[in-house]
Amino acid sequence: xxxxxxxxxxxFNAEDHLDSAIHSFESQSISSQCExxxxxxxxxxxxxxxxxxxxxxxxxxxxxxxxxxQGAGLARNVGLDNARGEFVAFLDSDDEYPxxxxxxxxxxxxxxxxxxxxxxxxxxxxPDGRYRNDPKGKFAHYYRGQGFEKDALxxxxxxxxxxxxxxxxxxxxxxxxNHIRFPxxxxxxxxxxxxQAMIAACEFYALREMTYSYRVDVAHVIWDYRKGSDxxxxxxxxxxxxxEHGFQKLYDNCVHRxxxxxxxxxxxxxxxxxxxxxxxxxxxxxxxxxxxxDEMNMPRDVRFSKMLSPEPVFSALLKxxxxxxxxxxxxxxxxxxxxxxxxxxxxxKNLLGAKSAAEP
Length: 360
Fold this sequence. Notes:
alpha/beta, Spore Coat Polysaccharide Biosynthesis Protein SpsA, Chain A, 2 domains, 9-stranded mixed sheet, 14 helices, 9 strands, globular
């Protein structure tokens, strides 16, 4: 009999939290009717030994594949190609499920309503081990689209979000029949997969309950040109899907990812490392997104110019690849100095506010 759910877990140097992640699977109320597929993606720590121990303990419920390091996306594809479950789920090796009933809850709703995709809300595990979920509070910008206020059937054309693929289960036939797999990207491989799956399903069943516990700040990304370029390619891939289906909110999300999240991070890295090639890729991606927006009859977003502000400095910097050390220093100063001044002004206002509040 085929498993109800195949849980796919890429593993790379995850010895600190791997036991907790697999225990989270083992403790699920329907784990005896599920399978866990672990893909050792070239780990150099004790992760392979931990996987062997769990394989010995859980027997046929666990399958372990080993490959040279290729990234989480291609590792998940190995799991998808070997999955036997009616549905598939994804659990990273440093995360866990919020409840012992998480998989059962999603599966029961999927079968009750005949849905190909079912999922819920994300909660975050802080470095101190505490759980955090305040979608309407201080971190509301971070949770935008990552939580649901009630159980409901939602059309993807109304939602148009691109993050948090791991909080859902997916009908395996939906993915296989539409040839949906993760792209060969070291970063940002999840949103293209997620959006393609949602578009293929057209609708999904949303649960108010937590269905995934995501551990924050476990490992900081060490950027290089390949990772940066891949992240930018992933943003463009989702923007192309937005254009193809006329999803304006999804396109706006892509602009936010580039100009408000990923782009500034990569820009600062490129300036710090004096990586002209990556800086060119950032500009190229900005131009690609602007062109897609024009083709969708979207107004030109002011965030495009703000991301590489002050524009004259970057224009001068990008006129040729023979960039001298002074050019990089000027660009770094032009970007960093206004930010420092803004922080100082904000800190001063906060101090004045605190002083005023303390005065009788």
